[in-house]
């Protein structure tokens, strides 16, 4: 996921240099490097992933807020969407950055409290168990969990194409959640995955974790809500910029249409069918994320580096390894997609 984020950044900066403007989205990048077919794949994959995850964020946040505030789900969903949607639309970059900083601080505090409380029942021997057969099936969910590439074009614009700063932001920005994920999984596998808890077969670890300690429930709710809020802001900004470019609208915020198209469909869908998230999540992770943020970044970079039609700007490459690295990315993502297709076909 770090590699594909850097590949997107590399193509994005080259596209900005060639066009002489910032605010370049994945559509412009695909148009320049892959042509009409690449644009169509990019558009549909991007829109589907973003809407599916925004629906998930609104649905989950409304459930949490309903438990906290005791008001109907539709009011909580509307409150969440309007509040954070307004921050994205009306707020300056400084305000959005400040809000996101506060949310991230809250995430770290609640996460530390969650780990401290839950780790009291940690069984280290449970961490020595492994199920290697589960690895292939977990890759799409892992990829979905680490999706951030949608905000890379915004990052490149904000950092004014400074490749050194962009590389540092992508690497460190991905390393932090990686560390949190490793700690989180250690706590989960070392507590609810033990025979003593009686929850080793539970599907959702968040449902089984409070059973180990009554204090965990409120902390989990706070942590989940803060994490959803930060992700929601990033996806709203990414999708609204994408729609602005797709609809050929100005890149400033004088036009509310991209934000209306970004905010209200997920809100409506989450209220009409709260289970739509679970129906779309597996498909989004397998066929959406691994295509849009797996195969396409490598394909765009390949075209940008090695086709005669691309203009050489003599910019440094953010990812080393040449064609071998790009082939490895495309082949790895393609293998997972094909494997999932065959497995789903065999099930039916």
From TrEMBL:
Keyword Flavoprotein assigned: no
Alphabetic keyword roster: Cell inner membrane, Cell membrane, Membrane, Transmembrane, Transmembrane helix, Transport
A biological process term (GO) from this entry: amino acid transmembrane transport
Gene Ontology CC: plasma membrane
UniProt-annotated location(s): Cell inner membrane
The UniProt record lists the keyword Transport: yes
Domain of life: Eukaryota
Topological relation to the membrane, as annotated: Multi-pass membrane protein
InterPro entries in alphabetical order: Amino_acid_transport_2
Ranges that cross the membrane: 37-59, 71-92, 98-120, 132-151, 171-194, 215-236, 284-302, 322-342
Main location per the UniProt record: membrane
Any Pfam family matching the protein: Trp_Tyr_perm
Protein name, entry field: Tryptophan/tyrosine permease
Organism of derivation: Artemisia annua
